[in-house]
User: What shape does this take?
Amino acid sequence: MLQQMLISFFVAPSELIKILSYVLRDKKNQYLKRLFISLVFLMFYLCLVPAGQAKAGLVSPSITVNLPSRTIELFAGNNLVKEYPVAIGKPATPTPLGNYSIVYKEINPDWYPPDQKGKMVPSGPENPLGYRWIGIWNNYGIHGTNAPWTIGAVISNGCIRMYEEDVEELFDKVGYGTPVRITYDRIKIRTNSKEQILLAVYPDVYGYGNVVSVQDIRNQLAMYPWNSLLTDDFLRKVVTQADGRQVVIASQFKVMINGSLINEQGLSVQDVQYIPVQPLAGVLNQKINWDEKTKTVQCGSNRIPGNRSGNTVYAAVENIAVLFGGEITWQADQNTLDYRTTVIFVNDNQVNIAIKKVQGMLALSVLDLAAAMGRRVVWNQEECVLLLTDAGQNIIVPVAMIGQGPYILITNINQYFNAYVYWNEQANTIELTYP
Assistant: This one.
């Protein structure tokens, strides 16, 4: 009879008082009693409050419950507001997957044990529902608990348990009609307040056979520029463990070039720091070439290994100085990599000449210097001898070997290349002039 009265309620709203009186006298069918009351509240809520808007003013709130991670995520639109730990149903009584919505909310709910008909446990410390109930479908809901040590476990009869302070906070932030999505995602990628990207692979808590592969992780990381910087061996280890631990797979940092921040950020992946090469070359007014076959990037006579992600080429920080010269320091308190290089001009034209320090003294790449000045030199790699042709004579130029290339101290440039050198240490420039 109660079912018929509930149906007639939607046909004739004037019967509301009669139905309410009947329901309150009914001591047996507690489920339909709660359902009817929730429908009454829902009707008034939809009349008085814009659809989907919570009391706390969240715009387009929604809830995602992920069973393998045992978490609730509260969203406002597409923005994650907060994540809460929860307990979920045990394998024998699993929490159901699917899309639901909030249909009933109750403060200080009574509990009716499913295996003890007619028994009721009032609100209080003995009530396993805690002090808040958020109904989403049938007898399933999100609620508090008088056993907080169970949070994070796979232990309930199918409902979703929260710490009491968490469920009271959530209760106040969501309203009737708020979408609730229950998922079974074993892979989770997050970004924390430290700009670190975290990866977690969770166990198959219900034994559904959801196998996670390295390629599955790659697919979810496809939108990130550092996907190609991660090795398969590293990801395979995370998949093999599948223990739910959040592993830092990448972090971002700011890049400052000669005192100015660039828009692009650097990436730290598997303890290696990378810088996007193109914007760096642009600021330094240097021309670079990417060789897809050898996976190397070249600037002048210098070549270093690189990694390409989309249209961006990344190079390890330790190799940047080889490519462009300069010095790199790390400012941990500002999460900033400070790169400073000396700009070189030859007869007022900025040129690309690698620069290093030899025993505290600046030294320029002889090959780059000769090319910029149009001078003819012959470099004997085996004997480490550089010959400069001047007025028909071959002059041996003293050089210092750094890596695979010869460098000349700036104090020797005038003697061997007949050029005046002006080093402005404060402005970080070197000016070379010659007839």
Confidence is low (pLDDT under 50) at residues 1-19, 21-25, 45-54. The longest strand covers residues 79-89. The chain is about 20% helix and 35% strand. The domain at 61-183 is CATH 2.40.440.10 (L,D-transpeptidase catalytic domain-like).
